[in-house]
Amino acid sequence: MNKRYIIGAVIAAVVLVGVLVGIQAFGSDDGGPSSIEGTAAVQKEFAEIPASGSVIGDKDAPVTIVAYGDTSCPACKAASDSTTPEVITKYVRTGKANMEFRPIAFINESSERGALGAEAAAMQNAIWPFVTTLYANQAPESQPQWLTDELMAEAVQKLGLDVDKWKSDYNSEAVNSAFFTRRDQAAKDEVNQTPTFIVTGPKGTKTLVGAVNPSEFDDAIAEVQ
After folding, report:
1. What does the pLDDT read at residue 158?
2. Whole-angstrom Cα distance, residue 200 to residue 130?
3. 209 by DSSP, 3-state: which?
């Protein structure tokens, strides 16, 4: 299967540039997962939460949490496993906050592939279940080619999404454009590592970096709401 990935994001002054080129998709012979697991738990985590594009929760919620994440980032996986579920339960399900996921690529080719796949999932309002599934199946950083097109398509299928639409969107210019938009947004927001959470409310903005304890979200939300 043919696949593109982004080569080289060059930082020059305040402008980031990248080139999107075609490559051959890698298999999982480097020790990455051979199949996707855990989608039932992910579906339960996000069941009945309103979703639109890359955002979950009430669009009119007083607080917005922007999450920058890399699908190959171990700290992002840790946050997805332990922090995000509590934040979703306490703040998103209750209408106190909404959350937007912005996929970016810092680590390896699988980061880039995952970011593009996530943008395609957003076109079916399923970016959060998609990236959460990838985190649940994440391979070590020592396996940079762990995430294949086939694994992502399997995740899409098991999450109950339209696989043909996802494949079409994944290879579209709209997804390419979204990738670079996220990259530019991350530069503007001075994101230097993942995960980075930007909590914004009526009283201002608070940035949290890393797999922080859920109590830090309590403090940040109390400060900005």
Report:
1. 98
2. 24
3. strand
Instruction: Specify whether the CB–CB gap between 23 and 4 falls below 8 A.
Output: yes
What are 56-74's pLDDT values in tens digits? 999 999 999 999 999 999 9
Both structure tokens of 83: 């922090």
DSSP state letter for 172:
S
DSSP H or E run through 68? strand 63-69
Q: Which two tokens stand for residue 40?
A: 């039932």
Buried b (16+ CB within 10 A) or exposed e, 173-182: eebbebbeeb
Residues 6+ apart with CB under 8 A from 19: 6, 7, 8
pTM over 0.90? The answer is no
- Report CA 168 to chain centroid distance, whole Å: 19
Q: Where are the alpha helices (DSSP H) in 100-205?
A: 109-122, 127-136, 149-158, 163-170, 173-188
Question: Which tokens is 148 given?
Answer: 């294949």
DSSP assignment of 6-17, as one string?
Answer: EEEEEEETTEEE
**pLDDT tens digits, one per residue of 17-58:** 332 333 233 334 456 899 999 999 999 999 999 999 999 999
The values of phi and psi at residue 150, to 5°, are: -65, -40
- Model confidence at 189, pLDDT cuts 50, 70, 90, reads very high
What is the largest distance, in Å, between two alpha-carbon atoms of the chain? 50
